[in-house]
Specification:
Length: 125
């Protein structure tokens, strides 16, 4: 595994873990219908976290690209929610994580192209 792969994987796992943490907190602090929605969110966040850990342990470029892309979208949408509710922390926190994950993914993809994964990347994109 290359350094860009490890960094991209780490940022992706941390991003998924942050989402999972917020989901678990929502489950613990809500009741009734809001708790049901929080449980569904927690289930999806758990899946994304497990997939991101699998990508790291497996060493698969394709898994990492898919997982990192998914978490970039999740964090970007979380930032959009922050804008909607006019909460600076819930806007810039997820936006910063999305940007960091995007930068790590681009670095990984550029490194993959220079080390022979170019045909794989071309097929994926």
């Amino acid at each position: 595994m290359s350094l860009p792969f490890i960094i991209c994987s780490a940022v992706t796992v941390i991003s998924a873990l942050i989402s999972l943490g917020y989901s678990v907190a929502a489950v613990m602090t809500t009741t009734n219908q809001a708790r049901v929605m929080a449980l569904y969110t927690c289930a999806r966040s758990t899946a994304l976290f497990l997939i991101s850990v699998y990508a790291l342990l497996n060493g698969s470029a394709q898994w990492l690209q898919a997982t990192a892309t998914g978490m970039i979208v999740v964090q970007a949408l979380d930032a959009a929610i922050g804008v909607t509710i006019k909460d600076t922390g819930k806007t810039f926190g997820p936006a910063g994580v999305a940007i960091a994950n995007l930068a790590a993914l681009v670095w990984f993809m550029l490194g993959a192209q220079s080390t022979g994964f170019a045909s794989t990347l071309t097929n994926l994109w």
